[in-house]
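For the sake of clarity, the format in which proteins appear in this thesis is described at this point. The record quoted next illustrates the convention:

___
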Amino acid sequence: MPPHSPIPTSQISRALVLGSTSRYRRELLERLRIPFTVAAPDVDETPDLGESPRDLALRLALAKAKAVAAKHPESVVIGSDQVADLAGQPLGKPGEHARAVQQLRQMRGQTVIFQTALAVVCLATGFEAVDLAAVRVVFRDLSDAEIEAYLQAEKPYDCAGSAKSEGLGIALLESIDNDDPTALVGLPLIRTARMLRQAGIQLLRATP
């Protein structure tokens, strides 16, 4: 969905809300050094029948932003979602050890596309934009022992695809190919910064 025309930052100053309880997204957004609050989106993340991982990520990112925006209509709201795409099969957060083992066994030796969707919404101005960063990740041909050692060390049960590339999970991989370096962690900051500017949030301002 194409964004609306940028809103001049000189005309508006709005609060920023991150519609996510993910600590990874919170830590990433803090890098932009702008004040924000966090709100939990109440969104059913069940895939629709036949829905592709890409479409699922885009739908959920926008749904999360809109759900939080409904409670904060004057604010600019960020929503995001990530789905691991293994040959068209969506892989979400494993939640527990056995499912994480299953996911990593499925992905070993395979190329997985991590579909990281982003939405920015402000109901007061009518601004709505969505974007997607598709990160191509090639997994090593992991042994069961390597999978078990990794999961015991890092316990990445709250990460889509059971791997944290910013930590020990990097040892699981052959390569990463993307155009937005933080997208794999959960929030593509180049796209986030661009969309926030379009929504009227000034990122770089002189300090007194």
The longest helix spans residues 53-69.
